Predict the structure.
Amino acid sequence: MMQEILPSMLVARPRFGRATVWAESPLQLLSAVEAHGAGLLGNETVIHSRSDAVGMDATLAELLSQVPEGISFADPGSSVPPLRVPGLDRWVIGDAYSGMAQAELLRGVADKEIVIVDDGLATLKLLATLAKDSPAPLVRPRAAASSVRKALGLAVWFLLRRLTRQSRLLVVTALPVPLDLEQRFRAVGGQLERHRFEWLGTQPVTEEINEPTVVVGSAMAADGLIREEPYLAWVESLTEDGPVGYFPHRRETPASLAKLDRHPLIRVNRHTIPVEMRLRGLRAGQVVRALPSTVLASLRLILGPNGVPLKGHAVPDNWWLPQASDSLRRHLSSSLDDGGSPA
């Protein structure tokens, strides 16, 4: 088994100065708050959030009154905040594969430090891509990228590699990073710091969940990677152990959720804030189940001390659709431990 370095309490050298964050999802927003709370962004951090991101308004409302000192929020918008700003020390993003973020990076980074915070398994994919000496365009694994889009992604690969050599690229993650990957990333000059949601752990629990089984929904059916029917049948089969609380992914369709909601023992919760914030109150006697997802790693950090098991379930071969390549299947399954496969 590949050896991993598990996240531990941060002991990093605190950074000073000013940072600007571009958050395109609620998890990126929470990750930026954790990075600032750990002292990795500076004394002052201004967070710009993407206004059309699902769940962003609810997450902002939850965070506004309780964020660490030094954080302020700009009005949500649709434009990436500029990088070349006098007096700015760090420019922070969660999605290095975002075309909007890549275009701004190529306008020039001057003397800025670039910080990348978590936004799913793409964080590990980015580390692996930057740790290799062979250039590769930074495009999403399942994207049908045009030649122009690939050229943009390739230019950003060269830019980020140059920044790693100059010790100006920092990745902040809660994910367990394989030891060999960390060593290769640091060997090219990359900086890597971890958190365990320390700031979130100081906040009061705001949601009570009573179902013995909690399922964190997957977007793989909505994204056209797996067949919907067996996935929904699997969720329904979990009611054999009692009522199920279902927390949907933001990309799941209303029609799919309506099918689950018709089952008398399944409660489909409205999508609001990240599940890392919503499920903190679970206790021993409850269990969390999910298909391959970053949430398995993040919730282990949060719920492990409470004695709540997390079961990651491999996708059966006959669920996959042809457009899910073998490499994409391996990438999506990299978060699993010992949950087994759905029946």
Remarks:
- The radius of gyration is 20 Å.
- Residues 147-165 form the longest helix (19 residues).
- The first strand starts at residue 4 and ends at 5.
- Confidence is low (pLDDT under 50) at residues 1-11.
